[in-house]
Amino acid sequence: MSTKVVVTVVGAAALVTVGVLLWRHSAKAVHAGRPAPASGLGDVNGDGWVDQTDIDMIKEAYLTEITLTDDEFARADCNQNGKIDVGDYLLAKRYMLGEIDL
Ligand SMILES: [Ca+2]
Ligand SMILES: [Ca+2]
Fold first, then answer.
1. Among candidates 64, 53, 62, 65, which has minimal Cα distance to 88?
2. E strands, 1-102, in order
3. Do residues 43 and 72 both lie within one domain?
4. Separation of alpha carbons 34 and 13, rounded Å
5. CB within 5 A of ion ligand 1: which residues?
6. CA 71 to CA 61: how far, in whole Å?
7. Which of 11, 19, 45, 88 is deepest in the core (most CB within 10 A)?
């Protein structure tokens, strides 16, 4: 095997390794979140997870950029005071980070 072939093979292997590492990292990032509590609080979109998507929905609902359905509203109202506010945002975020339970 010539030096040129060896360098090419090693280079290709390195590229595949970097690609796999990047793929695994991005796959992990997609699943960042925490399984929803039995109450469903915080899991605004109802997919079984409290993740950044839910946090963003609470923020956007608070800023009146989106309108939630009745079910989404009930799950977004983490402090159960009948409105979407900063408290809901903080509770959902802290739940997602494992700091509290809902
Ligand atoms: Ca969710
Ligand atoms: Ca609330």
1. 62
2. 34-35, 49-50
3. yes
4. 35
5. 43, 45, 47, 49, 54
6. 13
7. 88
Residue 45's identity, in one-letter code, is N
Sequence length of the chain is: 102
Considering the entire predicted model, what is its pTM? Answer: 0.70
Asked if residue 73 and residue 40 are part of one domain, the reply reads yes
- Condensed to tens digits (0 to 9), the pLDDT of residues 71-86 reads 999 999 999 999 999 9
> Which of 46, 49, 86 lies closest to 69, judged by CA?
46
Ligand in closest contact with the CA of 83: 2
Could you read off the pLDDT of 53-66 as tens digits, one per residue? 999 999 999 999 99
Ligand nearest to the CA of 55: 1
As for how many domains the chain has, the answer is 2
Ligand 1 mean position, distance from CA 50 (Å): 4
The CATH number of the domain holding residue 53 is 1.10.1330.10
Q: How far is the CA of 63 from the centre of ligand 1 (A)?
A: 19
